[in-house]
Amino acid sequence: MSQLIWNGLFVGSFYALVALGYSMVYGIMKLLNFAHGDIYMLGAFTGFAILGAVGGISPGMALPALLGVLVVTMGVTGLSGVLLERVAYRPLRNAPRLSLLITAVGASFTLEYGMRAAAGADPQVYPLRLGGTSAEILGARITLQQIALIIVAVALMVGLNLLVTRTREGRAMRAIALDPRTSALMGINVNAVISRTFFLGSALAGAAGVMAGAYYGKIDFLMGFLIGLKAFTSAVIGGIGNIPGTMLGGLLLGLLESFGTFWLGGEWRDVFAFGVLILFLSVRPTGLLGERVTERV
Amino acid sequence: MSLLSVEDLRLSFGGLLAIDGLSFTVGEAEIVSVIGPNGAGKTSAFNCVTGFYRPTAGRILLSGREITGMRPSGIAGLGVSRTFQNLRLFGEMSVLDNVRAGAHLWLRQNFVDALLHTPRYRRTERECTEQAHHWLDFVGLRGDRFGEARALPYGEQRRVEIARALARRPALLLLDEPAAGLNHGEKAEMLALIRRIRELGIATVLIEHDMGLVMEVSERVVVLNFGREIADGRPEDVRRDPAVIEAYLGRDDEDDEDDTDDTDDTDDTDDTDGKGGADGKGGADDGDGGGDGDA
Amino acid sequence: MTAPGATRAPALGRAASRLLDSRWAGLAGLVLALLAPFVIATPYALSVMTSAAIFVMLASGLNMVVGFCGLLDLGYVAFFAVGAYTSGVLSTRLGLPLLATVPVVIVVTVIAGVVIGAPTLRLRSDYLAIVTLGFGEIIRITANNLDVTGGPSGIYGIPSLATSPVVFYYLTVVIVSVAVIGASRLGRSRLGRAWRFVREDEDAAEAMGVHTYKIKLAAYIAGAVWGGLAGVLFAGQLSAISPGSFTFLQSALVLMAVVLGGMGSTPGVVVGAIVISLLPEVLRDFAGYRFFAFGVLLIIVMLVRPQGLWPHRSREASS
Amino acid sequence: QGLLGGDSQAGDGKGPIVLGMLIPQSGSEAAIGPYMKNAADLAVEEINGKGGVLGRKLELKVADDACDAQTAVAGANKLVTEGVQVSVGGYCSGATLPTLPIFGKANIPMIIPAANSQELVDQHLKHVFLINGTGSQQATAAMAWITKRGAKSVALVHDNTSYSKDIAVRTQKLLDEPGGPEAAILEAVTPKESDYSANINNILAKKPDFVYWTGYFQEGGLIIRQLRQSGYKGAIMVGDGSVSEKLASIAGDAGEGVFATMTQTPDTLQGAEGWVASYTKKFGSAPGPYTNQAYDGVRLAAEAIKNAGATDGAKVIAALEGIDGFQMFSGPLKFTPDHTLSAGGFQILVVKSGKFALQDALK
Amino acid sequence: MATLEVEALDVHYGGVHALRGMSLTVGEGEIVALLGNNGAGKTTTLSAVSGLVRPTAGKIVFDGADVTRARPEAIVRAGLVHVPEGRRVFSTLTVHENLQIGGYLVRDQAEIRKRVDRVYSLLPRLAERRTQQGGTLSGGEQQMLAIGRALVSGPRLLLLDEPSMGLAPLVVASVMELVREVNAEGVSVLLVEQNAKAALKIAHRGYVIESGACVLGGSARDLRGDSRVVEAYLGGL
Ligand SMILES: Nc1ncnc2c1ncn2[C@@H]1O[C@H](COP(=O)(O)OP(=O)(O)OP(=O)(O)O)[C@@H](O)[C@H]1O
Ligand SMILES: Nc1ncnc2c1ncn2[C@@H]1O[C@H](COP(=O)(O)OP(=O)(O)OP(=O)(O)O)[C@@H](O)[C@H]1O
Ligand SMILES: [Mg+2]
Ligand SMILES: [Mg+2]
Predict the structure, then answer these.
(1) What gap in Å lies between CA E13 and CA E154, rounded to an integer?
(2) Is B291's pLDDT higher than 50?
(3) How is it placed in the membrane, per its record (chain C) (predicted)?
(4) Which is the most buried residue in A282, B11, B45, D306, by most CB within 10 A?
């Protein structure tokens, strides 16, 4: 039982990590950024390329090396996100919201198959592995990396939440989400704030990509698709644009999958997870922590 | 039996009592104004009557039938129509389509008619369009009625909203600040419009901050403050009610210098002595003709 | 009274826009579709054109839900699957001809529309999106796991509606045309206007007596029936169906057809659907780069025409 | 060619003989396509190098099926339109099934190198030949090795695709017969994910001493790694879809000692070392899943055309039915009345220092 | 020197020619009223000045700098703040956050706090509703919030689009008083108002616009006396 919970939490924190960026971008532009998962993929491959270029790394240096790679990768994916927004999303700011969906899917295809052209369709094996020293805690087998990963995810969540709810930048993000035109009248540089949001969100996705590569060991050009969907799901369950909600949403999805697998078997897992989600949303239509918007008439 | 009767209505948002025991009635073809300071609960009362808010307590009866807690479309189905304080037009649809929305409830047409374009379909569509034009003429829309509603200037949008509400063929019409954003001449037209609506036998409840209009057109005035009713009576009585002056209108000596023109129009004896009413009426009567000249 | 604001389109422009307006353009499109096999009738061309026609039907069904009513549905393929599987199972297990399964398909898809729509249509669009996505996945996985549906390898040996691909193509074109016209007529009727009211402003629609919930459900059901019938055609065309045809990606592609063409515009979604279904075929020779090129083209097209290829015009012809 | 224009299909005695190959080049299975295409290219090149068939060169036309039925149907029609004379493709069963009638109507024989679901066989179509071992043959081989190893409790893990589930379910049936080892659990995983800990949790709860993974190498490598990380000590075996060096490199150290059920491979076949070398030299990577089947498919097509003395569909089909003793990786070929391999020629391989080596020929 | 100079401005919305050679000036420390019928182009003029819509011709000079093509945020930075038509408060932000957003460009937190407190004291109703979501305020309360929000940004030129709309008579008076006070502190004001009497009472000068161009301009006193203005906007004879 505790193993189930732990597994769910761990997988969930991965979802949450990707979902945080997704949620921020979604929150500010109401854009289903289908390419977000592919930024995650891009992150994994960037890390892979850097490690390959650097050459062998002694096992003792694995963690510091990983941190270095992480930082560089975050920069790269962050900039890619900014570029993506600049090229594919910004020109459509005043178009119907769903028009962005097309360019997002287009960007997703472009990234995926661009990577396929660059790195091949075959999966790549990460040159750096986080070995598994595990310990038994409360009857669950837990590895150090898992704990580290969860700590990172939670820390990012807390930091982001502070940023969004407490700072001027965060207020600007929320204002833009509500009404970009009026935000500009407040002196907010809408484009710059959106760019920064994309940078942050994409950097997070890139970090998650590297961590996934190092933890699981295998990356391929389609690795972002499924996790992108799950991140979207997590972000929505949590309450769109709500950072702690997104985190909880990711964890909840992880737990649902874990328990669904246990109770109904792997083949019915997603039916269970989505079934519960649908029931949940029909009772609580704005997600876990989503604000109930009372719109005046 | 009165058309609308609101009995001891209460509405709270968390700790805030937006409406606190409001009761009033509206008779057939009567024009009743609801006035009060900002945040007094006027719009909230409309929202309760039209089903957008569920009252915390109290009853709302329409022709003796209880409608408390029904969904808005159900209440609309019983003949209640409204406009919104913050315009709620279907912005990306044509002006004509906006007014056609009013026809939704009486248009007898089903999906088979629509798929096969039966004679009934053609007839009802034609009728619907004719009606839409009719009501746009009725409210005196000047702007382009085939283009998007959101492209109209603010004041014109107000007229479209009223036309839409009228196309519903209501027994009771609720207007939330119809004269906001209109200049003097346009207000006169609005006044005339409200009178013409009454002539159709439609009862009207009006929220307005423009005292000139309110005093001119209402048969009865209900005054709210902090969700409570502080006066209910004929306009001239309400105007003199000290509680109303205190809470809402302001004292004469204050307003003769600084206060709104409209209060002045009807209040200030030295300025437009006795003409406030006549002037309003005059503007109203030749409103259609004069309106064009203004534009 | 005529007003200064009333704009009058120049006669020429109006004539042009009339010509472009659905009826003539639609007729021209239909003629084009009917003549195409006389120009090119290779099995390949026919199969691609048939698929495109079926895709048009899907898109016009989804257009009622997304374009007209503004409900973001990311799991539209669920109805496609329900239709395909219902007719597939009935025709192979009970030996019914495909045509005979149509009434059952309609009933089943209506039920599916209600089942999926009823609990979820109260949700706001983003939440609705995830719930519909979930339903799409649930249907696919269920088909993958059950025995009646043939598990992961699906059902094979479904009888076709016609003996030759050419006849099947013509049959498809006729059915799809009827469906497209039907959708467009619904869109211009009282019901269709109500859909647009709901899309634009639910509160205002309620105030005008539009029971928004029922109206949305109606859009859902209509979309479901269209999708289901497209599923029947699909089963007839392929003769074998499997869960792999009903993935989320397929839903996304149909949605893209709607948006790319121009939401709420009938000629738009027809064009959009044709583009989305033909483009990958046109790019087929790029093999591995196919989807790369597809992605780039999608972005470019959208940047050039942000409102869609053939957007809906809200201006009415003054009559 | 339009309805008015009449057909002018190529197919006469001149020009190259065209072989068609439908494989996934995009979509979720895109990784497989290149392996099969490379192998086919290699075979075509070799045969052309020796003068071709019937004095004509071979030409390979490849179409993407994206592992999706509709794309596959369009692709198949495209191949038919381009005048393909024999089809040597077919990887995903779901995408291959709807193409059968298309090739059938055009009277084009199909040599299917990879797809092997029972539904392909059940229709008893005259033009369809499967040269991959069937699920039941593989299951039998797996069962033999499980028994030989003395395992008691077996966990069967598949990825819910028809190919993988078929092997797992058939193995389960064999295990369910009284006596011998038991099937502990039939577990399905979702392909294309990274974390299988929930599934592994289910598996370990049943305390098996043998795990048989019947899916592909991408997930296989991860599952092996995560099984070992979770403390599983028993034996692990994978199906032929997982036989790729990538499996071992994804699994890392955990991959050592993993068994596999596999038809004969160049590595295990005497005299085939040179083939691996030339493949690796030409394409810069080692052969992967279904490389040898795709290679054999082309060779078989050439052989049948040669025997038939013509490219006419009916004659080639007859020639294929008549083939006896043609040497393939999987052994000498003779089709059963079902048009499948008589014996799968399955062997047991084992991972040794990152490579698959023969463990037991199961003779 | 004039704070704002608008010269021969043209604005098109698609096919609609909304401004046709609009010109006006706002002098340093002036309150200038802009009167006109519905659709005359008042809102469009303000939107063009604040950078929300792009003029097709003409020139806008603010404080000697050409801002015709500047982006809205740059214009705000220069000290020109626009209270838009229809209030446009941020609906799910609280009243307090809405006010803070007004001070987005102000780096000094203490200064923002000071200005917000000042708004609270000028418009006490807002203080009562500090934590309420902007979107749930009553119409008049939202109008107060929109005005208060602009004040927090500390403008040098304030564009007000129908600030009295939806306000109770007493509040109209106090808002007009507030505008006068702000003006007394050196802020120039361009005021669009349908309540012409109230506007002309506090304005120094005014313009009447029709069909996208000024047809009349002059001191408030002159306008109050002009028969055309009286007839159309003031309602006297
Ligand atoms: N959904 C809500 N949540 C919280 N408070 C609300 C909500 N709706 C209204 N209120 C509060 O209830 C009070 C009454 O609001 P209402 O809109 O009815 O006022 P009003 O009389 O129409 O004022 P105005 O003349 O300014 O339009 C206001 O103080 C408002 O802030
Ligand atoms: N988005 C738009 N699209 C098309 N036309 C528009 C748009 N906005 C305004 N217009 C047109 O521009 C003209 C000027 O409109 P504007 O809103 O500036 O008028 P206004 O003087 O502010 O009127 P009001 O007193 O009603 O607010 C009008 O004819 C209007 O129809
Ligand atoms: Mg109100
Ligand atoms: Mg305006």
Answers:
(1) 31
(2) no
(3) Multi-pass membrane protein
(4) B45
With contact defined as beta carbons under 8 Å apart, do A236 and A30 qualify?
no
Kindly state the tokens that stand for C151. 């598990």
Q: Scanning every residue of chain A, which has its alpha carbon at the shortest distance from the alpha carbon of E150?
A: A186
Instruction: For a ligand 2 pocket test, name from E9, E12, E38 the mutation site with the most ligand atoms within 8 angstroms of its C-beta.
Output: E38
User: Where does A2-283 sit in CATH, by number?
Assistant: 1.10.3470
Is the pLDDT higher at B12 or at B250? B12
Cβ–Cβ contact D9 with C under 8 A: no
Q: Which chains touch C (3 or more CB pairs under 8 A)?
A: A, B, D, E
Q: Is the ipTM of this complex over 0.95?
A: no
Q: Could you give the CA distance from residue E169 to residue B222 in angstroms, rounded to a whole number?
A: 16
Cα A260 from chain centre: 22
**Bridge-based pairing state of the strands B220-225 and B228-233:** antiparallel
Q: How far is A163 from chain C (nearest CA, A)?
A: 24
The answer to whether A273 and A230 have CB atoms below 8 angstroms apart is no
In which domain, by residue range, is C240 found? Answer: 43-247
Nearest-angstrom CA–CA distance, B216 and E110: 50
Candidate from A171, A183, A187 with C-beta closest to E97:
A171
Q: What confidence tens digit (pLDDT) does each residue in A84-137 have? A: 999 999 999 888 888 888 899 899 999 999 998 898 888 888 887 766 567 777
Q: Are C183 and C60 in contact (CB under 8 A)?
A: yes
pLDDT (tens digit, 9 = 90+) per residue, A164-222?
Answer: 888 888 889 989 988 999 999 999 999 999 999 999 999 999 999 998 888 888 999 98
φ, ψ (nearest 5 deg) of residue E10: -120, 135
Whether C5 is covered by a domain: the verdict is no
Residues 6+ apart with CB under 8 A from E143: B38, E87, E163, E164, E165, E166, E167
B16 CB under 6 A from ligand 1?
yes
Domain ranges of chain E: 4-89+155-233
Nearest CA distance, E110 vs chain B (angstrom): 30
Contact C73, C62 (CB under 8 A): yes
CATH of domain E4-89+155-233: 3.40.50.300
Considering only alpha carbons, which residue of chain D is nearest residue C285?
Answer: D63
Q: How far apart are CA E215 and CA B273, in angstroms?
A: 31
Q: Is E236 in contact with B248 (Cβ distance < 8 A)?
A: no
Length of chain A: 297
Is D31 in Cβ contact with A220 (below 8 Å)? yes
| Torsion angle (degrees, nearest 10) of CA C75, C80, C84, C85 | 20
Cβ of residue E135 lying under 6 Å from some atom of ligand 1: no
Domain count, chain C: 1
E15 and C5: CB-CB below 8 Å? no
Residues 98-127 of E with CB under 8 A from A: 100-102, 104-105
pLDDT digits (tens, 9 = 90+) for D223-239: 999 999 888 999 999 99
Q: Give backbone dihedrals phi and psi of D258, rounded to 5 degrees, phi first.
A: -75, 135
C30 within a domain of the structure (yes/no): no
> A56 pLDDT band (50/70/90 cuts)?
low
Q: Answer yes or no: is C317 within a domain.
A: no
The model carries a pTM of 0.89
- Point out which residues pair with D153 in neighbouring strands: D182
CA distance C7 to chain D (A): 49
DSSP assignment of C262-277, as one string? -TT-HHHHHHHHHHHH
Q: Distances from the Cα of A167 to the Cαs of A162, A170, D354, E109, in angstroms? A: 7, 5, 53, 11
Residue A289, CA distances (Å) to A20, C205, E74 in order: 14, 28, 36
Task: For chain D, say whether A223 makes contact (Cβ under 8 Å).
Answer: yes
Each residue's pLDDT tens digit, D87-125: 999 998 889 999 999 999 999 999 999 888 888 888 889
Contacts of D13 (CB under 8 A, 6+ apart): none
Ligand 1 neighbour B43 (Cβ under 6 A): yes
